[in-house]
Design a protein that fits this description.
With 375 residues, the chain is an alpha+beta fold. It folds into two domains: 3-237, Rossmann fold; 241-373, RNA polymerase II/Efflux pump adaptor protein, barrel-sandwich hybrid domain (OB fold (Dihydrolipoamide Acetyltransferase, E2P)), CATH 2.40.50. It contains nine helices and 20 strands. The strands form four sheets. The chain has a six-stranded mixed beta sheet, sandwiched between helices. A hairpin with a 2-residue loop joins strand 16 (302-312) and strand 17. Bound molecules: adenosine-5'-triphosphate (ATP). Adenosine-5'-triphosphate is lined by residues 12, 15, 17, 35, 37-43, 195.
Length: 375
């Protein structure tokens, strides 16, 4: 079942929660709505479900306007972050609930219900706990049961609101893979809301990034990651360092007095430039006086002090303070702190020590011009 969202806006009092949102979702797609807290993701999901009405705009399922269709008639299955399973019912009865509640003439026979519930429990790999009660399950098991329960009535559309939000990192990761496999098996058109970029990029066919009630960008995980449309998207998709400066002569002259070569700013002399660099795109060298100059004697790269190194597993995370900044990492303004990531092996081979002076140069960066681009 395809879903078309047409020019949807929603206001709560004077607060504009959604601003003219339009989105087409193909039948069988798995879409992630990704954005920070309060950006309007849940509101959009509730409008699709029919739990909330838009002020303007419309929702269509397979071309049919759903605006006046009641939530019960929309054929939508839900899973929420804290899905309250019925505590006094076994797992089996929880999953059977939606089927048993159907009007008599649509309700399957009890033997067919039994078969269906057991099939679903097998699908979520929990048929062995059919007779347990929710309090005897782990959080991850409860969410899988919630999903089985949502699927029992064969929804045309599955809506998941931070379904793994309350679980610990390891379980979340397992459930993510599991959700993807399940979706590949069932192909129910699914939309899930998350503020976790890793979750969205790993699970979804398409990611829709929302900011302040508007769609900032949509595309496959790869498209969005490789070509972020705005500084917001770039910053939201992963850790970034922001360097502010002014464009001149194909270089960004940073506030710290150093320069970064940047062909993107060649025709923008005098404009404010914002250079975003991912921690793993910073090249790290030991500093020697004079070394940070390029062939023309211009300062190159950024001279920093290694304030703290966190080496866990294969990655060394370096917290760096730009030269001239008198603050320590503990009270430095967050934007003053630079983070670099290098392989732990390189860190050990270089024999880096906290307190040393280093020079960092971006291998790759994304430049946005003018002030509106700031996160
Ligand atoms: N019924 C309501 N009445 C008033 N304001 C509301 C209502 N529902 C949502 N809002 C406001 O609309 C904005 C968007 O809320 P929404 O729940 O859609 O955000 P979200 O992106 O899902 O955030 P989160 O990740 O924190 O759940 C928020 O600022 C919220 O306070």
């Amino acid at each position: 079942m395809s879903i078309e969202i047409r020019n949807v806006s929603k206001q709560f009092g004077s607060f504009q929660a959604l601003r003219d949102v339009s989105l087409d979702i193909a039948s069988g797609e798995l879409i992630a709505l990704l954005g920070p807290s309060g950006c309007g993701k849940t509101t959009l999901l509730r409008i699709i479900a029919g739990l909330e009405t838009p002020d303007t705009g419309s929702i269509h399922f397979a071309g049919e306007d759903q605006t006046d269709v009641h939530v019960r008639e929309r054929g939508v299955g839900f899973v929420f972050q804290h899905y309250a399973l019925f505590r006094h019912m076994t797992v089996f009865d929880n999953v059977a609930f939606g089927l048993r509640m159907k009007p008599r003439k649509e309700r399957p026979a009890e033997s067919a219900i039994r078969q269906k519930v057991m099939d679903l429990l097998k699908l979520v790999q929990l048929d062995w706990i059919a007779e347990r009660y929710p309090s005897q399950l782990s959080g991850g098991q409860r969410q899988r049961i919630a999903l089985a329960r949502a699927l029992a009535v064969e929804p045309q559309v599955l809506l998941l609101d931070e379904p793994f939000g309350a679980l610990d990192a390891k379980v979340r990761k397992e459930l993510r893979r599991w959700l993807r496999r399940l979706h590949d098996e069932l192909h129910v058109t699914s939309i899930f809301v998350t503020h976790d970029q890793e979750e969205a990029l790993e699970v979804a066919d398409r990611v829709v990034v929302i900011n302040q009630g508007r769609i900032e960008q949509q595309g496959t995980p790869q498209q969005v990651w490789d070509n972020p449309a705005s500084a917001f998207v770039y910053g939201f998709l992963g850790d970034v360092n922001l360097f502010k400066g002014r464009a001149n002569d194909g270089r960004i002259h940073l506030e710290e007095g150093m320069q970064l070569d940047s062909p993107e700013v060649r025709h923008a002399d005098g404009t404010q430039a914002f250079a975003y660099v991912r921690p793993h795109d910073l090249d790290v060298q030991r500093y020697a006086p004079g070394q940070a100059l390029d062939a023309h004697g211009r300062p190159r790269g950024i001279v920093v002090q290694l304030e703290r190194a966190i080496v866990v597993g294969p990655i060394a995370r370096l917290e760096l303070i730009p030269e001239g900044s008198t603050q320590s990492a503990d009270n430095a303004a967050p934007e003053a702190l630079i983070e670099a990531q290098i392989p732990a092996q390189q860190f050990h081979e270089m024999g880096l020590r906290e307190g040393e002076m280093l020079v960092v140069t971006p291998r790759r960066m994304k430049v946005f011009l003018d002030e509106a681009a700031g996160i």
